[in-house]
Design a protein that fits this description.
Layout lengths: L1 H11 L17 E6 L2 H15 L3 H10 L13 E7 L5 E8 L3 H10 L2 E5 L5 E5 L3 E6 L4 E5 L2 H5 L9 H6 L3 E6 L5 H17 L9 H24 E11 L4 E10 L4 H8 L18 E8 L2 H23 L6 H22 L3 E11 L3 E9 L5 H12 L5 E8 L2 E6 L3 H11 L5 E6 L2 E6 L3 H11 L11 E8 H12 L5 H10 L6 E9 L2 E8 L1 H18 L1
Helix pairs in contact: 2-3, 2-17, 3-17, 7-8, 8-10, 10-11, 11-12, 13-15, 15-16, 16-17
Length: 550
């Protein structure tokens, strides 16, 4: 255990970073992490691992390890870590820690083979396993530790920068701020980071060239989003709270962009037009309920175009290389892929992702589902459904099951292999219904599915509400019913151990995840809530790691 503790402290202090000089970068983001106090962190871990997961062995290992790092630390006051970025995004850490007694803390450093020598006029000089400096703020009883003298000397008040986070009483939080000047410099500084990270994406065994290029492209698009946040955000706050009284976890974030940037322009596009589906009620209290009305700026539209262009040959490769498929199935599968990509690409031209899903319980312990997505090329849906019997063995469909007033609905009967899972959710003998109107695609299952599509298709023709919802994304998800269906369909394939752990953790009364992201003036705010069962699953994961690693 002592070796693990030794290594962890070294990692925390940034020992593993290169000792070459790192140039100062005044344009880099200012990043601060805050833990409300060590006592609260330990209490939260105990709540997750022992109280919820009930894993005494996993907790005992953590309980034995954690005090190793806390000698001399005041466990009832906030801890702060600053991530200091230099040229080419090389990083160092500045630790700002509350101490009960400076002498005891220095002795704790000695245990980890870090010496501390007081200089005549200045802070302590740290040596041996960590070369750096430590300043003691006597008024506040905090120490400031970093590799460079200037980085410890500039801190006069340990908590002044993070007061807003502390007022929110988050258990753990992050604050990222940028100056208006330096946007271009921050983007330029990401160049080498991009190259290094992209070089780490290696081709997998048996992966086709198209699949490899698609994976690299997806990573590049993720980096586009991160780079924009990194370079163009004025302020970003992320806060997590483990609430042992309410038995829930809460995550909050807020984002404000620098004036005149593309990120600001992107935020300004949110909540300016009502959703096409705004008149359709979504309860947000069933097993899967949600809305998304997310505009696509030029960067995202370009990225979608590139992605779809490479996605099609990747799908065709995968279909052609499937030895279980006949020539007829391969031909049908390739055509289905073409049609689906064409519909997705056409939807992108509307410059937004606009969709909803509403799944709710009904009498008898079953569920109903209704969903829709905006599309400018829904007519291709009929061709897709028509090809399904050629693609999937024993699959049957009924085309144009309903055709009226510009609405076409097709019935997809459930194959025997999938009937148990589907019927358990939506009722014996039920089918999946999909439909199209000139501006949307529709889907429904459960009792009265056809009537619900018809009603929804009429509602979207009405005038939209005068008030535009500020919500960009809304999601309510009961995880257990869907996990059970996935587990039944997967038939022991994939990571069965993790699925079993999740099934063990969740109950019907505590398995809900909710998320809302909305525009608030010139900012974007988000809130997520995790039910007790999901926290129990997290506790089981931590316990598993503790028993296998510590």
């Amino acid at each position: 255990m002592s070796r693990i503790a030794h290594f962890a402290l070294i990692l925390l202090l940034g020992i593993s970073l290169s000792k070459t000089a790192i140039a100062e970068d005044s344009t880099a983001p200012n990043i601060s992490l805050v833990q409300i106090n060590a006592e609260g962190m330990i209490a939260d871990l105990k709540f997750l691992v022992l109280d919820l997961a009930g894993d005494k062995t996993g907790w005992d290992k953590l309980d034995e390890l954690l005090p190793t790092f806390l000698e001399g630390i005041d466990q009832q006051r906030p801890l702060r870590i600053d991530i200091l970025l230099g040229e080419n995004q090389e990083e160092r850490y500045r630790l700002i820690l509350p101490v009960t007694d400076l002498g005891v803390f220095r002795e704790a450093l000695e245990v980890f083979e870090i010496s501390s020598k007081k200089q005549r006029n200045g802070p302590y000089k740290l040596g041996n396993l960590f070369q750096g400096f430590m300043k003691y703020l006597k008024k506040f009883k905090y120490v400031v530790i970093s590799e460079k003298l200037t980085e410890v000397e500039e801190i006069e008040d340990p908590l002044k920068r993070v007061q807003d986070l502390l007022k929110k009483k988050y258990d753990f939080s992050a604050l990222i701020t940028n100056e208006k000047e330096g946007v271009d410099a921050r983007k330029k500084s990401m160049t080498s980071t991009r190259k290094q990270l992209l070089a780490a994406v290696k081709k997998k065994r048996d992966e086709t060239e198209n699949a490899f290029e698609l994976r690299k492209l997806a990573f590049t698009h993720q980096m586009d989003e991160l780079e924009r946040l990194f370079a163009e955000s004025q302020k970003m706050v992320i806060g997590w709270t483990t609430d042992s009284t309410k038995h829930e976890g809460r995550l909050e974030f807020t984002l404000k962009a620098i004036e005149g940037t593309s990120l600001e322009e992107s935020i300004k596009q949110f909540a300016t037009k009502p959703s096409y589906f705004a008149k359709i009620p979504v309860k947000q209290d069933g097993i899967l309920n949600g809305r998304i009305n997310h505009p696509l700026d030029e960067m995202r539209k370009t990225n979608f175009t590139e992605f779809y262009k490479l996605l099609l040959p990747t799908l065709k490769d995968r279909i052609a290389n499937n030895k279980k498929l006949t020539e007829e199935q391969i031909t049908a599968g390739s055509k289905v892929a073409e049609l689906v990509i064409q519909m997705l690409d056409a939807g992108k031209e509307a410059s937004l992702i606009d969709a909803f899903i509403d799944s709710n319980p009904v009498d008898g312990g079953k569920y109903i589902m209704l969903g829709g997505i905006r599309s400018k090329d829904g007519t291709k849906l009929r061709e897709v459904v028509e090809l399904l019997p050629k693609l999937l063995k024993d699959q049957t469909v009924e085309l144009d099951f309903v055709k009226e007033d510009g609405l076409s609905i097709h019935k997809i009967n459930i194959k025997e292999r999938f009937q148990d899972g589907f019927y358990e959710q939506f009722g014996a003998g039920e089918a999946l219904y999909v439909g199209s109107t000139p501006d949307a695609l529709w889907m429904a299952a459960g009792i009265n599915a056809i009537d619900r599509i018809k009603t929804a298709a009429k509602l979207v023709k009405e005038d939209p509400p005068e008030d535009i919802s500020p919500n960009v994304i809304e999601l309510n998800l009961k995880t257990l019913p869907w996990l059970k269906m996935i587990d039944r369909l997967r038939e022991k394939k994939g990571n069965q151990e993790i699925r079993d752990l999740a099934l063990k953790s969740l109950t019907n009364a505590d398995d809900t995840f909710t998320f809302v992201m909305k525009r608030d003036g010139d900012s974007i705010n988000g809130n997520a809530k995790l039910d007790k069962g999901i926290l129990r699953f997290i506790g089981n994961i931590i316990a598993k790691f503790s028993k296998e690693t510590l």
